[in-house]
Protein backbone atom coordinates (compact mmCIF):
# COMPACT_ATOMS: atom_id res chain seq x y z
CA UNK A 1 0.00 0.00 0.00
CA UNK A 2 2.73 2.48 1.01
CA UNK A 3 4.77 1.55 -2.06
CA UNK A 4 1.82 2.29 -4.35
CA UNK A 5 1.25 5.68 -2.68
CA UNK A 6 4.94 6.56 -3.00
CA UNK A 7 4.89 5.69 -6.70
CA UNK A 8 1.94 8.02 -7.29
CA UNK A 9 3.67 10.78 -5.29
CA UNK A 10 6.74 10.48 -7.53
CA UNK A 11 4.56 10.70 -10.65
CA UNK A 12 2.75 13.77 -9.29
CA UNK A 13 5.95 15.49 -8.11
CA UNK A 14 8.06 15.01 -11.24
CA UNK A 15 6.39 17.68 -13.43
CA UNK A 16 6.56 20.17 -10.56
CA UNK A 17 10.28 19.52 -10.03
CA UNK A 18 11.17 19.71 -13.73
CA UNK A 19 9.20 22.91 -14.41
CA UNK A 20 10.52 24.56 -11.24
CA UNK A 21 14.14 23.68 -12.12
CA UNK A 22 13.78 25.47 -15.44
CA UNK A 23 12.30 28.53 -13.75
CA UNK A 24 15.07 28.45 -11.14
CA UNK A 25 17.72 28.77 -13.87
CA UNK A 26 15.71 31.52 -15.58
CA UNK A 27 15.38 33.51 -12.36
CA UNK A 28 19.05 33.00 -11.48
CA UNK A 29 19.81 34.95 -14.66
CA UNK A 30 17.62 37.80 -13.42
CA UNK A 31 14.51 37.10 -15.53
CA UNK A 32 11.10 36.54 -13.94
CA UNK A 33 8.94 34.43 -16.26
CA UNK A 34 5.42 33.95 -14.93
CA UNK A 35 4.44 32.07 -18.08
CA UNK A 36 5.42 28.61 -16.76
CA UNK A 37 1.80 27.43 -16.87
CA UNK A 38 1.47 28.46 -20.52
CA UNK A 39 4.73 26.79 -21.52
CA UNK A 40 3.76 23.60 -19.67
CA UNK A 41 0.44 23.30 -21.44
CA UNK A 42 2.08 23.97 -24.82
CA UNK A 43 4.59 21.23 -24.04
CA UNK A 44 1.75 18.90 -23.10
CA UNK A 45 -0.21 19.40 -26.32
CA UNK A 46 2.95 19.26 -28.46
CA UNK A 47 4.05 16.00 -26.83
CA UNK A 48 0.65 14.36 -27.13
CA UNK A 49 0.18 15.43 -30.75
CA UNK A 50 3.64 14.27 -31.81
CA UNK A 51 3.22 10.93 -30.04
CA UNK A 52 -0.15 10.42 -31.74
CA UNK A 53 1.14 11.30 -35.20
CA UNK A 54 4.36 9.25 -34.99
CA UNK A 55 3.38 6.47 -32.60
CA UNK A 56 6.50 7.13 -30.50
CA UNK A 57 6.26 8.63 -26.99
CA UNK A 58 9.97 9.49 -27.15
CA UNK A 59 9.39 11.73 -30.15
CA UNK A 60 6.54 13.15 -28.09
CA UNK A 61 8.99 14.01 -25.29
CA UNK A 62 11.27 15.80 -27.76
CA UNK A 63 8.29 17.66 -29.20
CA UNK A 64 7.22 18.74 -25.71
CA UNK A 65 10.69 20.12 -25.00
CA UNK A 66 10.74 21.93 -28.34
CA UNK A 67 7.22 23.28 -27.85
CA UNK A 68 8.07 24.81 -24.49
CA UNK A 69 11.41 26.22 -25.68
CA UNK A 70 9.95 27.78 -28.84
CA UNK A 71 7.06 29.30 -26.90
CA UNK A 72 9.52 30.78 -24.39
CA UNK A 73 11.28 32.60 -27.24
CA UNK A 74 8.21 34.81 -27.59
CA UNK A 75 8.61 35.85 -23.97
CA UNK A 76 12.37 36.38 -24.43
CA UNK A 77 11.89 38.55 -27.51
CA UNK A 78 9.27 40.73 -25.85
CA UNK A 79 11.09 41.20 -22.54
CA UNK A 80 14.77 41.10 -23.49
CA UNK A 81 14.75 42.66 -26.95
CA UNK A 82 11.70 44.93 -26.74
CA UNK A 83 12.11 45.41 -22.96
CA UNK A 84 8.43 44.79 -22.19
CA UNK A 85 7.32 44.38 -18.58
CA UNK A 86 8.25 40.85 -17.48
CA UNK A 87 5.30 40.33 -15.13
CA UNK A 88 2.67 41.43 -17.64
CA UNK A 89 4.32 39.49 -20.47
CA UNK A 90 4.52 36.31 -18.40
CA UNK A 91 0.84 36.51 -17.51
CA UNK A 92 -0.04 37.14 -21.16
CA UNK A 93 2.08 34.13 -22.15
CA UNK A 94 0.07 31.90 -19.80
CA UNK A 95 -3.26 33.13 -21.16
CA UNK A 96 -2.03 32.72 -24.75
CA UNK A 97 -0.72 29.22 -24.02
CA UNK A 98 -4.00 28.08 -22.49
CA UNK A 99 -6.02 29.38 -25.43
CA UNK A 100 -3.63 28.22 -28.18
CA UNK A 101 -3.22 24.73 -26.68
CA UNK A 102 -6.99 24.34 -26.54
CA UNK A 103 -7.21 25.20 -30.23
CA UNK A 104 -4.32 22.94 -31.27
CA UNK A 105 -5.48 20.05 -29.12
CA UNK A 106 -9.12 20.11 -30.19
CA UNK A 107 -8.53 17.36 -32.76
CA UNK A 108 -6.97 15.09 -30.11
CA UNK A 109 -9.67 15.29 -27.44
CA UNK A 110 -10.93 11.82 -26.51
CA UNK A 111 -8.16 9.95 -28.32
CA UNK A 112 -6.35 7.24 -26.33
CA UNK A 113 -2.87 8.30 -25.31
CA UNK A 114 0.47 6.63 -25.98
CA UNK A 115 2.00 6.10 -22.56
CA UNK A 116 5.72 6.54 -21.94
CA UNK A 117 6.61 3.15 -20.48
CA UNK A 118 8.91 2.74 -17.43
CA UNK A 119 12.58 1.92 -17.92
CA UNK A 120 13.18 -1.27 -15.96
CA UNK A 121 16.70 -2.00 -14.71
CA UNK A 122 17.27 -5.78 -14.52
CA UNK A 123 18.06 -7.18 -11.06
CA UNK A 124 17.88 -3.70 -9.43
CA UNK A 125 14.14 -3.48 -10.10
CA UNK A 126 13.67 -6.74 -8.15
CA UNK A 127 14.96 -5.23 -4.89
CA UNK A 128 12.09 -5.23 -2.38
CA UNK A 129 10.35 -1.83 -2.13
CA UNK A 130 13.24 0.25 -3.58
CA UNK A 131 13.24 -1.71 -6.83
CA UNK A 132 9.93 -0.43 -8.17
CA UNK A 133 10.34 3.01 -6.60
CA UNK A 134 13.80 3.84 -7.96
CA UNK A 135 14.61 1.41 -10.76
CA UNK A 136 11.34 1.05 -12.65
CA UNK A 137 10.41 4.61 -13.53
CA UNK A 138 9.82 6.56 -16.71
CA UNK A 139 12.50 8.50 -18.57
CA UNK A 140 11.33 11.91 -17.32
CA UNK A 141 11.75 10.89 -13.67
CA UNK A 142 15.40 9.99 -14.30
CA UNK A 143 15.88 13.21 -16.27
CA UNK A 144 14.54 15.18 -13.29
CA UNK A 145 17.22 13.68 -11.01
CA UNK A 146 19.94 14.33 -13.62
CA UNK A 147 18.70 17.92 -13.95
CA UNK A 148 18.91 18.52 -10.19
CA UNK A 149 22.49 17.25 -10.07
CA UNK A 150 23.52 18.99 -13.29
CA UNK A 151 21.96 22.37 -12.46
CA UNK A 152 23.45 22.34 -8.96
CA UNK A 153 26.91 21.70 -10.43
CA UNK A 154 26.39 24.27 -13.19
CA UNK A 155 25.31 27.07 -10.86
CA UNK A 156 27.81 26.56 -8.06
CA UNK A 157 30.78 24.77 -9.64
CA UNK A 158 31.14 26.00 -13.23
CA UNK A 159 32.55 29.27 -14.57
CA UNK A 160 29.54 29.78 -16.86
CA UNK A 161 27.15 29.27 -13.95
CA UNK A 162 29.08 31.82 -11.91
CA UNK A 163 28.73 34.34 -14.75
CA UNK A 164 25.01 33.72 -14.95
CA UNK A 165 24.57 34.21 -11.21
CA UNK A 166 26.58 37.42 -11.50
CA UNK A 167 24.15 38.64 -14.16
CA UNK A 168 21.23 37.81 -11.89
CA UNK A 169 22.77 39.69 -8.98
CA UNK A 170 23.98 42.77 -10.86
CA UNK A 171 23.52 42.87 -14.62
CA UNK A 172 25.17 46.28 -15.00
CA UNK A 173 28.41 45.14 -13.34
CA UNK A 174 28.37 41.87 -15.30
CA UNK A 175 27.98 43.84 -18.56
CA UNK A 176 30.88 46.11 -17.55
CA UNK A 177 33.04 43.00 -17.13
CA UNK A 178 32.29 41.97 -20.71
CA UNK A 179 29.64 39.32 -20.05
CA UNK A 180 26.92 39.18 -22.70
CA UNK A 181 23.85 39.70 -20.52
CA UNK A 182 21.17 39.47 -23.22
CA UNK A 183 22.54 36.31 -24.81
CA UNK A 184 22.87 34.58 -21.46
CA UNK A 185 19.32 35.52 -20.50
CA UNK A 186 17.98 34.31 -23.85
CA UNK A 187 19.60 30.92 -23.25
CA UNK A 188 18.33 30.79 -19.66
CA UNK A 189 14.76 31.61 -20.74
CA UNK A 190 14.89 28.94 -23.45
CA UNK A 191 16.19 26.38 -20.97
CA UNK A 192 13.35 27.27 -18.62
CA UNK A 193 10.87 26.87 -21.47
CA UNK A 194 12.37 23.50 -22.44
CA UNK A 195 12.02 22.25 -18.86
CA UNK A 196 8.43 23.49 -18.67
CA UNK A 197 7.72 21.73 -21.97
CA UNK A 198 9.28 18.52 -20.60
CA UNK A 199 7.06 18.82 -17.53
CA UNK A 200 4.06 19.22 -19.81
CA UNK A 201 5.11 16.13 -21.76
CA UNK A 202 5.14 14.18 -18.49
CA UNK A 203 1.53 15.23 -17.87
CA UNK A 204 0.21 14.06 -21.24
CA UNK A 205 2.41 10.98 -21.67
CA UNK A 206 2.84 9.64 -18.11
CA UNK A 207 0.65 11.26 -15.44
CA UNK A 208 -2.55 11.21 -17.52
CA UNK A 209 -1.76 9.76 -20.97
CA UNK A 210 -4.40 11.68 -22.86
CA UNK A 211 -5.09 15.25 -23.94
CA UNK A 212 -7.42 17.30 -21.76
CA UNK A 213 -7.74 21.06 -22.16
CA UNK A 214 -6.03 22.98 -19.32
CA UNK A 215 -4.56 19.74 -17.94
CA UNK A 216 -1.70 21.66 -16.30
CA UNK A 217 -4.34 22.71 -13.73
CA UNK A 218 -2.26 25.34 -11.96
CA UNK A 219 0.94 23.29 -11.68
CA UNK A 220 2.90 26.07 -13.34
CA UNK A 221 1.99 28.42 -10.50
CA UNK A 222 3.01 25.81 -7.91
CA UNK A 223 6.34 25.46 -9.74
CA UNK A 224 6.86 29.23 -9.44
CA UNK A 225 6.17 29.05 -5.71
CA UNK A 226 8.57 26.11 -5.38
CA UNK A 227 11.47 28.24 -6.62
CA UNK A 228 10.90 30.73 -3.79
CA UNK A 229 10.23 27.90 -1.32
CA UNK A 230 13.62 26.39 -2.23
CA UNK A 231 15.45 29.73 -1.93
CA UNK A 232 16.72 29.24 -5.51
CA UNK A 233 18.58 26.02 -4.50
CA UNK A 234 18.11 22.86 -6.66
CA UNK A 235 18.31 20.31 -3.83
CA UNK A 236 15.79 22.17 -1.69
CA UNK A 237 13.57 22.40 -4.73
CA UNK A 238 13.64 18.61 -5.14
CA UNK A 239 12.51 18.15 -1.54
CA UNK A 240 9.82 20.81 -1.93
CA UNK A 241 8.55 19.23 -5.13
CA UNK A 242 7.99 15.90 -3.43
CA UNK A 243 6.35 17.64 -0.48
CA UNK A 244 3.82 19.30 -2.79
CA UNK A 245 3.42 16.04 -4.71
CA UNK A 246 2.58 14.28 -1.45
CA UNK A 247 -0.06 16.92 -0.66
CA UNK A 248 -1.60 16.47 -4.12
CA UNK A 249 -1.80 12.69 -3.79
CA UNK A 250 -2.84 12.90 -0.14
CA UNK A 251 -6.02 14.77 -0.98
CA UNK A 252 -6.89 12.14 -3.61
CA UNK A 253 -6.50 9.31 -1.10
CA UNK A 254 -8.49 11.27 1.48
CA UNK A 255 -11.37 11.45 -0.99
CA UNK A 256 -11.04 7.71 -1.71
CA UNK A 257 -11.24 6.90 2.01
CA UNK A 258 -14.46 8.88 2.26
CA UNK A 259 -13.23 11.44 4.78
CA UNK A 260 -16.11 13.75 5.67
CA UNK A 261 -14.67 16.86 4.05
CA UNK A 262 -16.07 18.44 0.85
CA UNK A 263 -14.16 17.18 -2.20
CA UNK A 264 -13.76 20.76 -3.46
CA UNK A 265 -11.88 21.68 -0.28
CA UNK A 266 -9.62 18.64 -0.58
CA UNK A 267 -8.89 19.47 -4.23
CA UNK A 268 -7.82 22.96 -3.16
CA UNK A 269 -5.28 21.64 -0.63
CA UNK A 270 -2.18 21.78 -2.90
CA UNK A 271 -2.90 25.42 -3.75
CA UNK A 272 -3.74 26.30 -0.16
CA UNK A 273 -0.43 24.70 0.88
CA UNK A 274 1.33 26.89 -1.69
CA UNK A 275 -0.16 30.04 -0.16
CA UNK A 276 0.68 28.94 3.39
CA UNK A 277 4.30 28.20 2.45
CA UNK A 278 4.72 31.58 0.73
CA UNK A 279 3.28 33.38 3.78
CA UNK A 280 5.71 31.56 6.08
CA UNK A 281 8.65 32.36 3.82
CA UNK A 282 7.69 36.04 3.59
CA UNK A 283 8.13 36.41 7.37
CA UNK A 284 11.84 35.59 7.06
CA UNK A 285 12.73 38.61 4.97
CA UNK A 286 16.46 38.43 5.67
CA UNK A 287 16.85 34.93 4.23
CA UNK A 288 14.67 35.81 1.25
CA UNK A 289 16.67 38.95 0.45
CA UNK A 290 19.99 37.11 0.75
CA UNK A 291 18.98 34.38 -1.71
CA UNK A 292 16.87 36.38 -4.18
CA UNK A 293 18.78 37.44 -7.34
CA UNK A 294 19.09 41.22 -6.92
CA UNK A 295 18.32 41.97 -10.59
CA UNK A 296 15.29 39.67 -10.74
CA UNK A 297 12.59 41.17 -12.94
CA UNK A 298 14.60 44.32 -13.72
CA UNK A 299 14.95 45.26 -17.42
CA UNK A 300 18.41 45.63 -18.93
CA UNK A 301 19.37 47.75 -21.94
CA UNK A 302 23.12 47.68 -22.75
CA UNK A 303 23.42 51.24 -24.08
CA UNK A 304 21.79 52.93 -21.06
UniProtKB/TrEMBL annotation:
GO terms for cellular component: plasma membrane. CDD domains: TM_PBP1_transp_TpRbsC_like. Keywords: Cell membrane, Membrane, Transmembrane, Transmembrane helix. The keyword Plastid does not apply. Its main location: membrane. InterPro entries: ABC_transp_permease. GO terms for molecular function: transmembrane transporter activity. This is ABC transporter permease. It comes from Rhizobium deserti.
